[in-house]
# Entry
Amino acid sequence: MKRHRNGKIVAPLGPASDPDEMIRNLVEAGADVFRLNMSHGDHADIARRHGIIRQVERDLGSPIAILADLQGPKLRVGTFADGPYELVVGASFRLDLDPAEGDATRVQLPHKEIFDALEPGSTLLVNDGKIRLSVKDCGLDFANCVVEVGGTISNRKGVNVPDVVLPLAALSDKDRKDLEFVCALGVDWLALSFVQRAADVEEARLLTRGRASILSKIEKPAAVKAFDDILEVSDGVMVARGDLGVELPVQNVPPIQKRLVRKCRAAGKPVIVATQMLESMIESPMPTRAEVSDVATAIYEGADAIMLSAESAAGQFPIEAVTTMSNVAFEVESDPTYTQIIEASRTAVRTSVADGIVAAAREIAETTKVAAICCFSESGTTALLVARERTRVPILALTSVERTARRLCLSWGTNCVIVEPVDRFKMAVVAAVRAALAQGYATEKDQIVVTAGVPFNTPGSTNILRVAPCEERLIFSGELE
# Structure
């Protein structure tokens, strides 16, 4: 489906989107990628939604990306005998491995790995940061704390440990089973939770065996510190602002978001900005002005995609939420200031022939009358490099590999078209002209830029560029061939 914007929209699925026709309606409203949350629903539910998405894809004749979001390790306190309890500032509170039910003075924390990493002075956050505990002394099976910020504590509330790197793998036993299931099912992207180090991503990559691209969720301070290493081994990134806002002072999150988005752009890897973007639309058909500004900020920063949360999964107005997000993206990208900001923040990368080719394609498009940049990309590498340039003209990503087309649905500005395989650049030019005309990106009076890597089917070999006229008589007369 032809979009009139470059930023992509990720829509999680849930009870609100269960009716079969709802998924098609969400695509038509503007959703480009669907997120399957492995924290909710069993494998049968996930498979059913996956099947509906693929049927909608066939009906519309346009690729749709599917992102499976792994749950990651969940750190929670145990249960209380007669809770909930109110913890007051200055009170003592103990966390330990004792499975006995808790009371107003202690509770079980059934995660030995946390005690292995804690030190006096470490901070523990409970119930999404509403309670803050400071460790006074600790051992291999306990931590005696003082309450710095009080609040209500009850059964199985979540625990965050912001200032230490926990000796926990990003993949739990449940995650490993879910990973194998969704990879066999045929998802396009795998979102990895609880990433703390590059090794977490590398472990997941070994398990996926190339069946899905890996997107690292940046939701812990340790991941922010190790971001450069994590980005290098990831295919994409999600800035998960919700958890970051729990583990870090909230005022730190906006500059971190901006910094991570720019680094992803420079690396040519898709980046999603997520969490609480239009949260009021869970219960209201209209967003707040602050939420609209938040979405706009992510678009102005050049993020590849923006993601809804419960708005489309469990909210009362899923279609309105997607439509609003799409409309905001369109209006921002129509603003002359947007182009100025994007181009001023572009990082020049000139380390390879491919970098030079895509930069030249963008410069030609900006200085001459070119309708679109068409890139042949079997692996997706060429299309990602062109998207990194944040061009002023549409990007047409042409590939004969259905999986590549789906994965590129997450990348900024890429309009994916599945074509027949080609083995010569002249035939690639013919296919590009035909696709640009058929998709409505060019007329016979226009010309397009075509880029590709020769020999074909060699990732990262982008090495050729041509400006081609779109006159149909040239196609069928064989002059372009």
